[in-house]
């Protein structure tokens, strides 16, 4: 066998592996499926935990990191499900818990009482165990016979490493890595007692922010009224659009609550919704990058509120929140829409603004599809579905005056300072009319609808 030669020394076996590797016993299909189901379970639980901890996590960078990692884990769940489905007839048993100890392990992480413990559990325990299991699979399986699984594992490893890098940078002190996750090691037989997860898990849907968001009830600057006012030039509008993007941080906070509080949907629902959640987080970071590009100290100058996610998470049921989201997003296509924002970006000669709006619009096309697939289909009539979203949003109480009277905010008009800082960056004199802008959300909702006296 050692003198086996391929034709004209071309790569044998499509270049997958040396002949010797292709002849090793590897894993049986039975064993391969058993292991894949454990990785699948691990990614599913990780997705769930990342999503569940976005809303109440105060630190913006972690919120954004969790949004990405929820999305990445959901993508690998999807790939693993597909691979298991290629090898086995249904029922695939993908909803079963492969090992009660693994369940406790992930339950404990999900219930971690502090951010620090959560981070350690995710990035120092769970993800290293997943990495070890994936590498183990690649090393043990027959690379020719099981090439499709190897491919899935390799792609997963790439992003597991990204997540670990994020975790390593986040964690100051290191702990020893955890044991094997793939269940190939002998079980210790030790009884594991639940600690944090002894009580049933309670999702915390109250959005929290770090100290760079000092005025989270501030609804003192109505971005939409400014944006659609034709008397204003495109340049200052780019500042307002960066604000609108950064404010999208409240969408992952809200979508995480839908994902976490909705059970019994097909897996693709969670995958799609998490992709959208991540897009919204990305939009927020595009706003952040936009402010940095203009030299605007956004935490000091721009008041990014959480009133929308707070109100929706505390006042509406998950399907009602989804209805509001759908209603808002289907409204993004016409006049006060994404095309308009992109055109403002182009007209402003700020290429970064135009680029971000270009992708913001493109993402919205995907979100419209996701809305059609997972919201609209609940209704027999599309019009009713839109109306229902409008009704749900109208029911939401955002008590502008009560917040002020209660001392939660003064609805301070932060716009002139932010605009002046942008002008400094551009080296131009502020336009007095732009500087004087002072329309709030007291009377006009973000979709430019007049708010009724009751709400
Ligand atoms: Fe959005
Ligand atoms: Fe967006
Ligand atoms: Fe969207």
Brief characterization of the structure:
The protein is mostly helical.
Strand and helix map with partners:
Layout: H1 19-22, H2 29-52, H3 60-87, H4 100-110, H5 115-140, H6 147-170, H7 223-227, H8 234-246, H9 250-261, H10 267-293, H11 298-301, H12 307-315, H13 318-330, H14 338-347, H15 351-374, H16 382-395, H17 400-405, H18 415-426, H19 432-435
Helix pairs in contact: 2-3, 2-4, 2-5, 3-6, 3-10, 4-5, 5-6, 8-10, 8-14, 9-10, 9-12, 9-13, 10-15, 13-15, 13-16, 14-15
Bound molecules: fe (ii) ion (3 copies).
Structure in words:
The protein has 455 residues and is mainly alpha-helical. Helix content is 59%, strand content 0%. It contains 19 helices and no strands. The site of one fe (ii) ion (FE2) has 4 residues, from helix 10.
What are the salient characteristics of this protein?
binds fe (ii) ion, mainly alpha, 59% helix, elongated, single chain, 0% strand, 455 residues
Shape verdict: elongated
CA radius of gyration? 25 Å
State the end-to-end CA separation. 81 Å
Put simply, the count of helices is 19
**In percent terms, what proportion of residues is strand?**
under 5%
Structural class: mainly alpha
Sheet having the most strands: none
User: Helix and strand succession?
Assistant: HHHHHHHHHHHHHHHHHHH
Ligand identities:
fe (ii) ion
